[in-house]
Amino acid sequence: MPKSSAAIAGIGSTPIWFRGESAPQTMLELIGKAVMAAVADAGITLDDVDGLAFFASGFDTALLIETLALKNVTFSHCVSSMGSGLAGMLDLAAMGVETGRAKNIVCIGGMQQVGRRLGQVLGSFGTTPDNVFQRIAGLNGPGQAMALQARRHMHQFGTRREAFGEVVINSRINASTRERAFRRKPLSMDEYLASPMLADPLCRLDFCLETDGALAFVVQAAERAQDGPQSPVYIAGGAQVGTAEWGRAFFGFQQDADAFVSAGGVPVAKRLYERTGIGPADIDVALVYDHFSPLVVMALEDFGFCKRGEGGPFVESGAIRMGGSIPVNPHGGNLSDAYVVGMTHIYEAVEQMRGTAVNQVAGAKTALITGGPAPTPMTAAILTNQA
Amino acid sequence: MTRVSICPDFSTLEVAMDAWSEPFWSAGAEGRVLMPRCTACGTFRWPAGPFCPQCRAQPVAWVSPGQARIYSFTILPMPGADKDAPPRWRLPTLVQFDEAPGIRLVSVLIDADVDAVAFGDPVTIEWRPGANAPVPVFRTAA
Fold first, then answer.
1. For A6-116+214-384, CATH number?
2. Is residue B2 part of a domain?
3. Which helix (H) or strand (E) holds A145?
4. How far is A387 from chain B (nearest CA, A)?
5. Residue B104 is nearest to which of A136, A197, A253, comparing CB atoms?
6. pTM value > 0.90
7. Which tens digits make up the pLDDT trace of A235-256?
């Protein structure tokens, strides 16, 4: 593993609310509060913040700079994709501090659905030459589109609904010990299988939560972070790869046969492992983007924890549980803890590396964070507590 | 009870098209399915657009893509007009073509036995009235 040049020195989060209930706070107010919490955690002040890194999650950065009265922002940059860009934001911030463009770059992201819901927004654009076919088909939300991939995966590999159920049940077990998690009630496989179908083979429980909140992470040069109040969590590396076949994310349907039954992570996994010299066998805990449970099965294949097509039996073996070969989403993930476009996955990865997580993976030294899939580029990152 | 998929009403759907996709819709007005193939290298291109994904050349010829077959699908329960209305299902379906490798078309499979849809099944493509252009739908081939 090459020496890390950047580290996460502080983390902050607002409380998390059910969809819409964060009003009358605005999105900028939520993000502002998260930034203040992260800055305090890192032992710096808002006047020290000279950089912002983010992904396309829907807020006006210029107004944020105004709202927080920042005076000298020398780095303000966005990864051009949505949930898939999540981990790339850390890569971007690492570049910023490595090159001296800024000293204290805050990575920010939030979600607020007051009035209208993200899935509906994605499906409510007027007809364009680009979306007219998905409108004719009736694929008005991401879960409906990804149901086509999930069904194909079941057809090609014999993947069972029980595998998707295991992803949900694992998330629920992990969330059960966390006070702030939104879905903590134990769930049996029979209950899962009886859940109403929303986009067969996806049932209601395969869809993630819809919650409001904001989170922020202070990234500094590694040496600088070592002087802060927290144990630094190093960014071992990040990777970002855009490919034509994911230009329309899950609404494209033109991927080659292998990519169609994937979570779009194969190219970015390859690049991430090459850049870091870390492989799937070296990862101690995986924060896998779980907006829809079948995509976790596919992402585990993409990132090399099992072979293509073996994700179903792999998760059904118990591999992703605490104590399994690769614990996945010990916080309960987007499915059971909270959904803030995956920002909570970064927060959990940092807590795992600090050794302070509610469901701590004993002795964990490396954490994988995956984005998306959503519009390309796909991104992923590895954090470590080893200097 | 056999579950049968709906044929949605497209009469108010405004079909948006541009210079590159317009030939698809004009062929549809004649009841034909044509897809764009690069005249330089022969690669099919979908969605229709200005450059070949293989060689980046611009010109295309619109040709018949051959038999359409089911590649994947999902089953959407449709909300009824009221709570006592009988359940209905919409079948978003993705097809690929025997003679147009590398591209797929998505629409709805109509009047199908929801529990008998199978991967690889051949479908015919029919055109239904839209607001400004006929809309393609799939029907299981007899």
1. 3.40.47.10
2. no
3. helix A142-157
4. 44
5. A253
6. yes
7. 999 999 999 988 888 899 999 9
